[in-house]
Design goal:
alpha+beta, 2 helices, elongated
Length: 65
């Protein structure tokens, strides 16, 4: 039961990220790192929270350029 809860929780988090950041693809790798990819942009972080922080910083930097 615990494994199913973990899988469902991860799936929900991936859906939430996809809903907020259109055009990005998200995943959770075997190493436990979360990743986000859009065209030739790739971000990676050890947690969902850190990935979202990196995404916001990345997107803010692109807007400033």
């Amino acid at each position: 039961m615990h494994m199913e809860d973990t899988v469902q929780g991860t799936a929900l988090q991936l859906q939430q990220l996809t809903a907020v950041y259109s055009g990005w693809r998200f995943g959770l790798g075997g190493s436990g790192h979360w990743w986000a990819v859009r065209r030739n942009e790739c971000l990676r972080a050890p947690s969902r929270e850190e990935l979202e922080l990196k995404l916001r910083e990345h997107l803010d930097a692109r807007q400033d350029a």
